[in-house]
Amino acid sequence: MPDASALPSQPYRLAAMPARKPLRFAFRPEAADRRLIAAALGLIELPALVLKGEIRPEGRRDFVLEAELQADAVQACSVTLAPVPAKLQEPVLRRYLADYAEPEGDEAEMPGEEVEPLPEVIDVAAVALEALALALPPYPRAPGAELGEAVFAAPGVAPLRQADLNPFAGLAGLAQQLKKDGAEGE
User: Fold this and answer.
1) Which of 56, 129, 152, 161 is the most exposed place for a label (fewest CB within 10 A)?
2) Which range is least confidently modeled, 7-16, 58-67, 120-129, 158-167?
3) Closest CA to 40 of 133, 131, 123, 128
4) Running DSSP on this structure, what letter comes out for residue 127?
5) Strand order from edge to edge, sheet including 62-76
6) Residue 111: pLDDT over 60
7) Which residues fall within 8 angstroms of residue 36, CB to CB, at 6 or more apart?
8) What distance in Å separates the CA atoms of residue 7 and residue 127, rounded to the nearest whole number?
9) What residue ranges do the domains of the chain occupy?
């Protein structure tokens, strides 16, 4: 895994931002940077990655980052390790609040996931990596890849299968036995 400081960065200092107009940005890492990102996220390949949007002031001291993430990523199948391509397109929204306070107490209501304390610098590359990590399928599967049933038992013992754990499996066996006993008694 690459060092976090080696990952690409595209920072915007909020103190230097226009007070009333949005700042439009596009984060498009070069091939070498995409390879670093792919390694950091455990991807086989990252052929394309773009985060395009704007950072705009909201109120007197708060900011909003609104963008769209588009990526082509190749992950290893969680069953066979075969390459599994994914085409991602996700909206990205972050609200940076100057007066952000962590909720207190056991039953405090949590703000939305997209609400964060106001930083001095917004790194859109870091936002892109976080959004990409969240958008990737957690357990990608290649077409036709299936998990087989693992069956273990001591020699001479019938293995317990998933179907045997079904609460109605015993009833089905009992019904078969009753039919068999009824047929023999006639």
Assistant:
1) 152
2) 158-167
3) 133
4) H
5) 23-27, 45-58, 62-76, 83-97, 115-117
6) no
7) 2, 6, 7, 8
8) 12
9) 4-135, 150-186
